[in-house]
Specification:
The structure is a single chain. By secondary structure, the chain is mainly α. 78% of the residues lie in helices and 0% in strands. It contains 20 helices and no strands. It has helices spanning 11-30, 39-46, 50-78, 80-100, 104-132, 135-167, 169-178, 180-194, 210-228, 241-261, 276-305, 311-317, 319-339, 341-364, 370-373, 375-397, 405-438, 441-472, 477-484, 494-497. α4 (80-100) packs antiparallel against α8, α6 runs antiparallel to α13 (319-339) and α13 packs parallel to α16 (375-397). The longest helix is centred in the C-terminal third of the chain and has 34 residues, at 405-438.
Length: 500
């Protein structure tokens, strides 16, 4: 196989190109949460049933997660610029179609397409960062990406509340999608001009792996469906899909090993999992997103259904987390080169402390002022989140060779989507079950948040374990070299040498 050294774009352009990537990432991630506060508007203006509303939310997450790894591999093979622009164009068109949907069924269909397009964009962003930046600049770029992840996820309810409050209940939900149009068009035009045209690897090994795509797609579908449809699919039969997912994952693993032995490029290079930094980082990301994203889900429901907050007021109440997360991510991008995994441990500990503070505030504060009472612990949790997401992403991908960066980013983000779906399913089940059985909403939100804390604690324990093993047994260079084989990328990143 012949590869060509991927060289960074000129300094004056690559930061502008990064801004294009982050803008597209912002609107695609914003759409994971902005619709949550728009569901009552959809019910009022479109007569959307509970099942349709559920699919508007879960369908997007489902197709988003399904497309990530194949799209990342496609970017590795055919060029990330082309894949990014195609995904962004499709996302923008699907957003317009969602806003114009004449019925709930059409809205669900367009929403599925929109999620798939978002899944095409996401891995190209991390892959382009790997190509355009190195060393400390790469850490800074991932820090900015972490800021975007934190802000977009937390600001979704606020943005949705502002739009519905401005436009009205009947058509407010449509503008939740229309808002993507000018941003998407502007980002596409800027991307055509600014995104670098890196040469891609050529040779027989760079074939696509359609059977691997089918196996992995079936596994992700079987794993996520019972999670995203937990409230709608009653009974226990849905959990029969989980062993099906395990069997498909085992078959996918065996097939990918066979592809590697036969000299063909697999969909996912399994040698990546020989890197402790990648394996542990992916697990930390999965478990953290299971706790982090669920907080806004149950907390927004509690504020609107129990405390009597409007959609806008509920969105404002999570603004401290979003703002603090942006600050924490910016700081994390600067400090990760110096402190490595210690920074992630500190960030996760701050998240746990902050969420426990939210639980205490909910118990002690009057309902009408609970948003103010939780502001300070939300700030603590937000700073911790910023110190977790972007440094962990940097440390997870730092040893991955550039020509595998798209697929590796897809694996990492697929774990995040699965973690989010699993967390919402588990935390939502705890919250709704206690509410239905006992009717005590304050206790229900506390139990739900405590479940989210438990998931964050698991991520913290994984980070501590990785830190201890890393200090006692630094990851050998030969493991990274196994994955790097065939790439002309240089030696290990400085962050790894410093204990990251």
């Amino acid at each position: 196989m012949t590869t060509v050294q991927a060289r960074p774009a000129p300094d004056t352009r690559r930061w502008k190109a990064l801004a294009v990537c982050l803008t597209a990432g912002f609107i695609s991630l914003l759409d994971t949460s902005i619709v949550n506060v728009a569901l009552p508007s959809m019910e009022h203006g479109l007569a959307a049933s509970e099942a349709a509303q559920s699919w508007v939310v879960s369908g997007y997450a489902l197709t988003f997660g399904l497309v990530l790894v194949p799209a990342g591999r496609l970017g590795d093979m055919r060029g990330r610029r082309q894949s990014f622009l195609l995904g962004l164009a499709l996302f923008t068109l699907a957003s317009g179609a969602c806003g114009l949907a004449p019925s709930a069924s059409w809205l669900v269909l367009f929403r599925l397409i929109q999620g798939a397009a978002a899944g095409m964009v996401a891995p190209q962003t991390s892959g382009l960062i790997q190509q355009m930046f190195q060393g400390a600049e790469r850490a800074k770029a991932f820090g900015l990406l972490g800021s975007v992840i934190g802000i977009s996820t937390a600001a979704g309810p606020l943005a949705g509340g502002l739009l519905i409050d401005s436009v009205g209940t009947d058509d407010g939900w449509r503008w939740v999608f229309f808002v993507n149009l000018p941003i998407g068009v502007a980002a596409f035009a800027a991307g055509l001009r600014l995104l670098p045209r890196f040469p891609v690897a050529t040779g027989r090994r760079e074939e696509f792996d359609p059977f691997g795509v089918l196996l992995l797609g079936g596994a992700v579908l079987a794993l996520m469906l019972p999670l995203v449809q937990m409230q709608q699919w009653t009974g226990r039969l849905k959990w029969a899909l989980l062993p099906v997912a395990a069997l498909l994952l085992a078959a996918f693993w065996a097939w990918e090993r066979r592809q590697g032995r036969n000299g063909r490029a697999p969909l996912v290079d399994l040698n990546l999992f020989s890197l402790r930094s990648f394996t542990l980082g992916s697990l930390i990301s999965l478990t953290y997103f299971a706790g982090f994203t669920t907080v806004f889900f149950v907390y927004s429901l509690f504020l609107q259904n129990t405390a009597g907050y409007s959609a806008l007021a509920a969105g404002v109440s999570v603004l401290p987390f979003a703002a603090a997360s942006a600050v924490g991510a910016a700081i994390g991008g600067r400090l990760v080169m110096r402190h490595g995994r210690k920074l992630v441990v500190f960030g996760l500990a701050a998240v746990v402390v902050g969420l426990l503070g939210v639980i205490v505030a909910v118990q002690l504060a009057p309902l009408q002022s609970v948003g103010w009472a939780t502001a300070l612990p939300m700030v603590v949790a937000g700073i911790g989140s910023g110190l977790t997401v972007s440094p962990n992403t940097t440390l997870t991908l730092t040893r991955v060779p550039v020509h595998r960066a798209g697929a590796a980013g897809g694996v990492l983000q697929t774990g995040q989507r699965i973690g989010s779906a699993a967390g919402i399913a588990v935390v939502g089940a705890v919250y709704f079950a206690h509410l239905a059985e006992h009717g005590r909403s304050v206790t229900a939100i506390q139990l739900g948040l405590l479940t989210a804390v438990g998931m964050s604690v698991i991520a913290l324990l994984l980070a501590v374990a990785d830190l201890r093993v890393r200090q006692a047994h630094p990851e050998p260079e030969r493991a990274a070299e196994t994955v790097r084989r065939g790439s002309e990328e240089g030696g290990a990143e400085e962050v790894v040498r410093r204990g990251g």
